[in-house]
Amino acid sequence: MIDRSPLAEFTGQVALITGGGSGIGRAIALRYAAGGGDVVVLGRRREPLEETARMAEKFGGRAEVVTCDVRDPEAVTAAVNGVVGDLGRLDALVNNAAGNFISKAEELSPNGWRAVVDIVLNGSFYCTRAAAQHMLAAGRGSILNVIASYAWHGHPGTVHSAAAKGGVLAMTRTLAAEWGGRGVRVNCISPGPTETEGAGAALWPTDEARDRVLGSVPAGRFTTPEEVAESAAFLLDARRAGYVTGDVLSVDGGQWLGKAVYTDPRAGRS
Ligand SMILES: CCCCC/C=C/C(=O)SCCNC(=O)CCNC(=O)[C@H](O)C(C)(C)COP(=O)(O)OP(=O)(O)OC[C@H]1O[C@@H](n2cnc3c(N)ncnc32)[C@H](O)[C@@H]1OP(=O)(O)O
Ligand SMILES: NC(=O)C1=CN([C@@H]2O[C@H](COP(=O)(O)OP(=O)(O)OC[C@H]3O[C@@H](n4cnc5c(N)ncnc54)[C@H](OP(=O)(O)O)[C@@H]3O)[C@@H](O)[C@H]2O)C=CC1
């Protein structure tokens, strides 16, 4: 549940959110709308995007839908140019679309590797490149990349996603330095395990796997999409986070720190 933001921090501004038809992307779109902004949600399937747009419109702003596969650079450029053509500006881009599944690295097919790396790394670059052409010309903009902590610590079974997210992290820091003097900020947000349409079935399909994931989170519960969205709003807001660029904000209940080995009561973990 997302309530109208008393800050109204995005009034008169426009955000493009990839993968905005579900999970974390939908929550970020709704939080931006709750802050008074206009939103465009992008993904492959129209129906879930339209549902997000209907929910966002209840906050009183404009909400549009673009069907597009982020792996197609020409379609991405047309989509971004269309947003600016229709809504007149682009203040924020959230690279949230992702694909993921668990596979042993030695059994992962080249096409399976390509599917995930193309969506996560290449797709994020295509969207960033197209959005930055408008943002740099305007001298303002904020780009937020949704990653995962295995971008820096790695994780067995997700070599494609970890490598792609690691690439997005390197891209973030590079572009933050490259564009820092031109008004465009680039940051990452790193959610902990979050029960969404895509993640649950792909990553913790059984009760046993789900319990194992929960056991890895010091806070003892899943992240909620709304928690991620609230921190995303902070990073996107130039008034509050205008001097933050090239950084990663973890919203994970301490998961990436909580590599407990001595899980017994004497260690404070059981
Ligand atoms: C624990 C905390 C950290 C959690 C971090 C979470 C990160 C997340 O990203 S959660 C978000 C998860 N959401 C999704 O994955 C939703 C979107 N997913 C997809 O679109 C698909 O899963 C996709 C990534 C496979 C892309 O779909 P599509 O382009 O339609 O690809 P294909 O179905 O044609 O498959 C391409 C290629 O990949 C192989 N493959 C697909 N699934 C699997 C699998 N489960 N295991 C092994 N290989 C798989 C598929 O076989 C194809 O390869 P070839 O057969 O060689 O052609
Ligand atoms: N859930 C979790 O536990 C965690 C998630 N994350 C990250 O958070 C982000 C959101 O995850 P979550 O909400 O769980 O994911 P979901 O699977 O629920 O949503 C992913 C979205 O991306 C869209 N998408 C996928 N492929 C493409 C594509 N090729 N082109 C355009 N859109 C695409 C999907 O829509 P459609 O299929 O219609 O295209 C869908 O709306 C991702 O970047 C993920 O890696 C990070 C850490 C943990």
Automatic annotation (TrEMBL):
Residue span(s) of domain Ketoreductase: 13-171
Residues of the signal peptide: none
UniProt GO molecular function: trans-2-enoyl-CoA reductase (NADPH) activity
Matches recorded under SMART domains: PKS_KR (SM00822)
Pathway in which the depicted protein is active: Lipid metabolism
Primary localization: other
EC assignment: 1.3.1.38
Highest taxon of the lineage: Bacteria
Location in or out of the cell: Peroxisome
Pfam families for this protein: adh_short_C2 (PF13561)
InterPro entries (alphabetical): KR_dom (IPR057326), NAD(P)-bd_dom_sf (IPR036291), Peroxisomal_t2-enoyl-CoA_red (IPR052388), SDR_fam (IPR002347)
Keyword terms: Fatty acid biosynthesis, Fatty acid metabolism, Lipid biosynthesis, Lipid metabolism, NADP, Oxidoreductase, Peroxisome, Phosphoprotein
GO annotation terms (biological process): fatty acid biosynthetic process
The reaction(s) this protein catalyses: (2E)-octenoyl-CoA + NADPH + H(+) = octanoyl-CoA + NADP(+); (2E)-hexenoyl-CoA + NADPH + H(+) = hexanoyl-CoA + NADP(+); (2E)-dodecenoyl-CoA + NADPH + H(+) = dodecanoyl-CoA + NADP(+); (2E)-decenoyl-CoA + NADPH + H(+) = decanoyl-CoA + NADP(+)
This protein's record includes keyword NADP: yes
Enzyme class: oxidoreductase
Summary of subunit composition and partner proteins: Interacts with PEX5, probably required to target it into peroxisomes.
Function text: Participates in chain elongation of fatty acids. Catalyzes the reduction of trans-2-enoyl-CoAs of varying chain lengths from 6:1 to 16:1, having maximum activity with 10:1 CoA. Has no 2,4-dienoyl-CoA reductase activity.
Name of the protein this chain belongs to: Peroxisomal trans-2-enoyl-CoA reductase
